[in-house]
Each structure stands twice: as structure tokens, then as C-alpha cells.
Amino acid sequence: MKVGSFDYTCVNGHCFMVPGLSLYGQGIMWSLGLGTPKYINLMDDPVYAEIHRMLKLFPEFQHNNEEENADILQKIFGVACDPDDDGSEFKLGATPKCPKCGSREMKSWDVSIEPKIWDVLEITHNRWQKLSSGDKKDALYRRLEQLDFIKQSSV
Q: What's residue 150's pLDDT?
């Protein structure tokens, strides 16, 4: 996917340019290890819709409004994405990694003044799609537990 670019400044004052776009429902997911960017179109991603539907099946989330569930979905969606080459997870809403100091804490960012066009691969879900529906539910449940959205069972 061809995308534009954003200029970021990390908290340590390092300026750098990365792939980015600001279209509703589309964005860049960053891996938490290598910092690899991957394109995602949430409006067209069937796995994103599947996770959204599955989340509503858990009793803990049936009474949430759409905004509450969307916030949770953003935090857990990486469980359904294929990992980066180093095995790290891709995350919605993650910031890029500063190439100079490795910080993910950013002071500012905006559309690049002198944009560059980047060719970014799309996020994939091959591993997720091979799971049975029961295994998908278990993986989602474990992620919800890890992030303290569901109290851990005492089993």
C-alpha cells in the first residue's frame, strides 16, 4: 500500500519521518519490537470485524457502549495479527520507534511538510485464520485477562 509520511519528534528531541496516513478507519500498526510499520484498513478488515463481534459475546462487555468496546478492541486486536519477524506483536495505536534513541514516547507529530511516498505491507492474519473458533475465543480470553479487562480465573 502506498502511504504518505509523518514527521515525529520524540521526547528526547530527535526528529524523524515515518510512513503515515490520516484517513478515517485506516492507519499504520507498529510492531512493538523492531518497529516495523504495517497498513490496516479497519473498515475492510474481516478479522477486525470478527474480533469486534467476538468481544460482544463475553458477558463482561455486553453492556458496554460501542465507544468502550472500540477502546478495548484497539488494545486487544494485535492478538489476531501475524507477528513481526522478531516475533513481536503489532499494535493499533502504537507510536513508531525513534530510530536514534528507541523511544516510543513522542512529543509531537504531524503530516510531513516535504512528504515521501512509502510502500507499506498490509497487516496479515494467517496464524489467526488457521485457529478453530474455540482456539480463537481462548486466545482472545487470555489477552483480555493479560490486560486486566477480565479477572483472571483461579483455575
A: 86
